[in-house]
């Protein structure tokens, strides 16, 4: 039996145990974790139904014996690490005491301290079975198209209208006329610009979204616009203000938005030191149950035309107490990890994580040097979260002048050149996963015209159903970290210039605007939800 608690502490470097000498035991641990995971995967594979819309198998975990998903067989059950302990270099996040008052009476709390670059919540589960790396250097444009099974046959009567509209849209998109030139869309960024353009146009013409007015504040309807979870807040704000897509009559809607904030749930419902997400999951279960009892819409599709938008790392796990919410609902989340059995490619949507430092001007300081004036080959600085960064540091810190790989940027270096200035002056910005697969660095690199190098196995990249990530980023498998420099030097100067130009052209698709404009981040996210909704229908 593994002493998981100790193991996880070591893995995360908590308690100061994992110095250089800890590597041998770390590797041993990794092997143990991997074999445990393999056993678990074997036992649970029959439960991971890819046809997620089907009637779910009976649940074998009652709320009393709540375990985080995926729940391994009893003998291999994970013990969660204590949340109160952190690496010595990170100040613990401010814990907000949970009020016993009903959620609607809780006053909004001040936003958590964001002094550190990356004030992430440490995970409640140990790092996943991450040492089973995917095959080599894998350009994302080779990902297989989603296989999503269709919903039950179109409904009858009034309900049928929205189905028929979506089927019509899907037909139109399949027959999209070939676009040779479009002033607003740069074709090399897209897998198929004709399809994207047509799909976007059909979305503008057809899509109607209903937003539930239910839900207590501040857990619902209260957008936060700053920090690393800002994406969910910006989406909520812009969706609730929207007049083009939002419809008051739910009978006309193709999609239903559950307007809650995963960050607010974490702030107000997590019991400090409890190491349990259960209160958050219970809130969501009850919230959905109240909506499904009050309105007919949830039961029609068992939640498959409903969506949530959530950027906190825990968001995917906290859907687990409601079968339909977990399996059917379109989860638009930053933690888009297909290895955990929760996020489903082609159904769920990878939400771009944007670190907004100044909500009043989210585009402050964007831009960077041209390719010819980028003197640094590769740059990374950040906290040692998760499984990938320690390996990156081990191979590249202080080894090579071209590879500027740091832990937190040392003061004497930061005094000469800031973090952002480094991003603006580097050819490649390394974006290794943190505790979870996502990282705000990817969008940051895009803002500063730096070609992102993404290291996170099993991560579904934002908008991958329409964008060709191979055109403007490099995806490196975790096992190839030792070859990182070789991989980057293997990219010719000409190809690099092309990629960097593409990053600049891509930027507008990743920008928040106070008043959304065509093809900006808000619309790209909405488009992905729309596009995945169409996957429900076969022609
Ligand atoms: C893009 O999709 C359209 C419509 O399906 C198709 O006619 C066209 O050949 C595709 N273009 C490319 C480059 O694959
Ligand atoms: C939807 O289904 C649930 C569970 O079967 C049921 O309790 C609820 O009353 C139904 N809602 C409506 C509006 O009929």
UniProtKB/TrEMBL annotation:
Its main location: Golgi. Pfam families: Exostosin_GT47. Residues 205-488 form the Exostosin GT47 domain. Residues 96-108 have a biased composition (Low complexity). Keywords: Glycosyltransferase, Golgi apparatus, Membrane, Signal-anchor, Transferase, Transmembrane, Transmembrane helix. The chain crosses the membrane at residues 22-43. The keyword RNA-binding does not apply. One of its GO terms (cellular component) is Golgi membrane. It is a single-pass type II membrane protein. It is found in: Golgi apparatus membrane. Residues 63-130 are annotated as: Disordered. One of its GO terms (molecular function) is glycosyltransferase activity. Belongs to the glycosyltransferase 47 family. This is (wild Malaysian banana) hypothetical protein. It comes from Musa acuminata subsp. malaccensis.
């Amino acid at each position: 039996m593994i002493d998981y608690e100790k193991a996880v502490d070591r893995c995360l470097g908590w308690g100061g145990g994992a110095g250089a000498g800890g590597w041998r035991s770390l590797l041993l641990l990794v092997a143990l974790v991997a074999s445990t995971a393999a056993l678990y995967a074997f036992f649970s594979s029959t439960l991971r139904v890819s046809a997620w819309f089907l009637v779910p198998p009976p649940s074998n975990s009652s709320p009393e014996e709540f375990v985080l998903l995926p729940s391994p067989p009893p003998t291999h059950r994970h013990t969660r690490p204590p949340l109160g302990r952190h690496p010595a270099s990170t100040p613990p996040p401010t814990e907000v005491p949970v009020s016993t008052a009903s959620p609607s009476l809780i006053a909004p709390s001040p936003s958590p301290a964001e002094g550190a670059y990356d004030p992430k919540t440490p995970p409640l589960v140990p790092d996943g079975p991450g040492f089973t790396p995917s095959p080599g250097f894998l350009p994302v444009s080779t990902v297989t198209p989603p296989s999503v099974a269709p919903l039950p046959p179109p409904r009858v009567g009034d309900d049928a209208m929205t189905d028929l509209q979506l089927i019509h849209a899907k037909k139109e998109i399949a027959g999209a006329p070939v676009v040779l030139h479009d002033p607003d869309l740069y074709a090399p960024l897209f897998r198929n610009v004709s399809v994207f353009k047509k799909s976007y146009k059909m979305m503008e013409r057809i899509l109607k979204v209903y937003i539930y007015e239910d839900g207590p504040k501040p857990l619902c309807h209260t957008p936060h616009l700053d920090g690393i979870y800002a994406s969910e807040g910006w989406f909520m704000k812009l969706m609730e203000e929207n007049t083009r897509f939002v419809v008051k009559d739910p009978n006309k809607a193709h999609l239903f938005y559950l307007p809650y904030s995963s960050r607010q749930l974490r702030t107000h419902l997590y019991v400090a030191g409890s190491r349990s997400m259960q209160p958050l999951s219970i809130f969501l279960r009850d919230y959905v149950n109240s909506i499904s009892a009050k309105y007919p819409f949830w039961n029609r599709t068992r939640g498959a035309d409903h969506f949530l938008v959530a950027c906190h790392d825990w968001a995917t796990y906290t859907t687990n107490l409601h079968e339909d919410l977990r399996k059917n609902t379109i989860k638009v989340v930053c933690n888009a990890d297909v290895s955990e059995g929760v996020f489903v490619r082609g159904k769920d949507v990878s939400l771009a994580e944007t670190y907004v430092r100044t909500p009043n001007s989210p585009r402050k300081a964007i831009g960077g040097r041209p390719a010819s004036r980028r003197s640094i080959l590769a740059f990374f600085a950040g906290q040692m979260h998760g499984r990938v960064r320690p390996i990156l540091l081990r191979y590249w810190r202080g080894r090579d002048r071209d590879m500027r790989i740091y832990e937190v940027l040392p003061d004497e270096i930061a005094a000469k050149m800031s973090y952002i200035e480094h991003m603006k002056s580097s050819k490649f910005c390394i974006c290794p996963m943190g505790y979870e697969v996502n990282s705000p660095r990817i969008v940051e690199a895009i803002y500063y015209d730096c070609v992102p190098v993404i290291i996170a196995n099993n991560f579904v990249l934002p908008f991958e159903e329409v964008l060709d990530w191979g055109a403007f980023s490099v995806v490196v498998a975790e096992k190839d970290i030792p070859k990182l420099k070789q991989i980057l030097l293997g990219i010719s100067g000409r190809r690099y210039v092309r990629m960097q130009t593409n990053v600049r052209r891509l930027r507008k698709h990743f920008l928040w605007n106070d008043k959304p404009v065509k093809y900006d981040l808000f619309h790209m996210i909405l488009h992905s939800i729309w596009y995945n909704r169409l996957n429900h229908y076969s022609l």
